[in-house]
Amino acid sequence: GQRRLLIARADAAGISLSAILNQLSPPPPLTGVLGVEEGGRPLLLPLSAGNVPHLLLAGSSGAGKSSLLRTFLFSLALGSRQSQCQFLVIDPQIGRGGRRRELELVVLLPHMLAQPARDPAAISALFSFLGEELAFRRETGHQSPAIFTAIESVVAVLEMGGAEQKELLGLLLQEGPAVGLHFLLTTGRPY
Q1: How far is it, in rounded angstroms, from Cα 57 to Cα 48?
Q2: Max mean pLDDT range (21-35, 88-102, 146-160)
Q3: Which residue of 40, 83, 100, 168 is most buried, as measured by CB atoms within 10 A?
Q4: 3-state SS class at 156
Q5: DSSP state for residue 7 in the 8-state scheme
Q6: Residue 7's pLDDT band (boundaries 50, 70, 90)?
């Protein structure tokens, strides 16, 4: 299934993640915060193979995709122990050109498995690791900890990596959720 949220509110006030999390005691594991509903209740998204296996955030530049992705990762971390979930980040723009990126703060979380992949070689190595992890988990039946891979600008990352990387990501998207591999993707131009 597919769920789409179209949110265009000129009067939208900022929402504090801590205020949302205070309404949840404790936050559910493997569940991320997307915001609040009209009535003020937290809008949550549990990621699982049977529910929503992945998250794709699409929108124009400056729409807040990266901020929402960062918030989602922080809320996952606050509601889940390291033994339940771990993170990988692919962001080819992190730390480049003196520009601060939204996902830079995520590297401070203890849930991070590795430093963010920024260049084509590191991105390729991370995809290889995920392919090996998929094979290992299918063979052994392991499903935890859940590994959430956040990919900023997924279309640009795939254009850098070529056909083999696209094929591997397709396989990971199809078969990964059954063994605890989930993807959180952003793009300004979905296909």
Answers
A1: 17
A2: 146-160
A3: 168
A4: helix
A5: -
A6: low
Per-residue tokens: 25: 């005691």
Q: What is the pLDDT of residues 160-177, one digit of tens each?
A: 888 999 999 999 999 999
pTM of the model: 0.85
Q: Which two tokens stand for residue 55?
A: 């998250």
The 10s digit of each residue's pLDDT in 86-124 is 999 998 875 555 445 677 788 889 999 999 998 999 999
Tokens 């990501």 belong to: 169
Compute the distance between CA of residue 25 and CA of residue 22 in angstroms, rounded to an integer.
7
Taking each continuous run of H as one helix and of E as one strand, the counts in the chain are: 4, 6
DSSP notation for 78-140? HHS-TTTEEEEEE-TTTT-TT---GGGGGGGSTTBSSPPB-SHHHHHHHHHHHHHHHHHHHHH
Token pair belonging to 66 = 């990266």
With a CB cutoff of 8 Å and minimum separation 6, the contacts of 189 are 58, 155
Q: Which H or E run contains 2?
A: none
Confidence at residue 186, expressed as pLDDT on a 0 to 100 scale: 92
Instruction: Give whole-number Cα distances, 45 to 28, 181, 190, in Å.
Output: 10, 16, 21
